[in-house]
Design goal:
Length: about 375
């Protein structure tokens, strides 16, 4: 009877074990971030976006308060049937203040949309930088392995009297230098992951694993078209134009009652025009530099591709020579490390060209990305 009870209990336990969900035994999977996910999360969770959203609400409240002040001033003016000049002046001033509050609210809404687009670009740049850094880390790790293999070889040669201690020490020092370089890369990698997590609103120490990327064609106009669109779309230019117009309106209000204010407003208008001219110059300079940079990136892309093809062909030959016993395993490893470095350089060139094209695309929308 006792044996039957034990057997029944064992059956129940085994059945329960098999009925448990598979995730109870599986390790927690690490989330792989794609470029699209990072851009979406940056726009949604970035702390700066949250700050600007609060600023928009404050602008909305300011617009509401300015509207109330204007309504009161207009009511006072209407009650006096327009016979009191002070009430008329107060109404016109409050109307301008209300319009400025409206502009500020509209600008803040437009500004956050432009900021989000620039944030997407910065997220792309950081993502690609981290991918490149990961590639460099892997390449240096392979170099360190190769260096340690060389140390083992030099150790054996030293024991057999086939080399001198100086050459052995040289290899050891070279390995130590690579280890230091690798540690610096690990530190940079950690810092960049912290920045990425901060950008997308994650915990700083959350694990970061990135998926490879593919790119869609980036559309932009010729140099003159990009420059014209940048001038049209840049928020600062429209703000300067509006400021000049508002100051002209204020000068009209005060021309019969406060000549000193009118004089000051005229100088302020001249000053604003000079500031506008500076911004227009900076737009032209930024667009010219962006096109120059695109040409540099294009040439670098062609060069690195040609070098990669050459190194790849050389490594294929080394594989054949190794199969024939004509070169050592260390020489083949060195060729593989060189191939990896060349591939990394080519991928970096692809990333740089893409980002250069994205800068021009943003410029057309009045966004001068850093």
């Amino acid at each position: 009877m006792y044996k039957k009870v034990v057997a029944c209990l064992l059956c129940v336990m085994l059945a329960a074990a098999f009925m448990m969900p598979p995730m109870a035994y599986a390790e927690e999977t690490e989330e792989v971030l794609t470029l699209k996910m990072v851009k979406e999360r940056a726009v949604k969770y970035n702390p700066e976006v949250k700050k600007q959203e609060v600023s928009i609400e404050l602008s909305r409240i300011a617009e509401r308060d300015a509207r109330v002040s204007f309504d009161i001033a207009r009511a006072n003016y209407q009650e006096t049937l327009g016979r009191v000049a002070a009430f008329e002046q107060a109404m016109r001033a409050s109307k301008l203040a209300y319009e400025m509050a409206q502009y500020s609210y509209d600008d803040s809404k437009l500004g956050i949309e432009k900021f989000k687009k620039e944030l997407e670009y910065n997220a792309e740049r950081m993502y690609l930088n981290l991918l490149e850094l990961d590639n460099v880390v892997q390449s240096v790790e392979e170099t360190l392995k190769l260096q340690r293999d060389l140390i083992r070889t030099e150790t054996l040669k030293l024991e057999l009297g086939l080399t001198i201690k100086y050459q052995y020490e040289q290899q050891r020092q070279a390995a130590m230098d690579v280890e230091k370089q690798l540690q610096l890369l690990y530190n940079s990698q950690k810092a960049l992951k912290w920045q990425l997590n901060r950008m997308i609103g994650r915990d700083l120490n959350a694990p970061v694993k990135l998926a490879p990327v593919t790119f869609q064609p980036v559309e932009y106009g010729n140099q003159q078209e990009v420059l014209e669109k940048a001038r049209e779309e840049l928020l600062a230019i429209s703000q300067f134009n509006r400021t000049i117009e508002d100051k002209h309106d204020y000068a009209e209000i005060y021309k019969t009652t406060a000549s000193d204010k009118v004089e000051k407003l005229k100088f302020e208008i001249d000053q604003t025009k000079l500031l506008k001219a500076d911004v227009e110059y900076s737009i032209q300079l930024a667009v010219n530099n962006a096109f120059d940079n695109l040409e540099i990136c294009k040439k670098d892309l062609v060069d690195t591709r040609a070098k990669f093809n050459m190194v790849d062909s050389n490594y294929r030959n080394q594989e054949k020579l190794y199969e024939l016993g004509l070169i050592s395993a260390l020489e083949l490893k060195a060729g593989k490390t060189a191939l990896k470095s060349s591939k990394n350089a080519y991928e970096k060139a692809v990333h740089n060209y893409y980002l250069a094209a994205r800068k021009l695309q943003l410029a057309q929308e009045g966004i001068l990305a850093e």
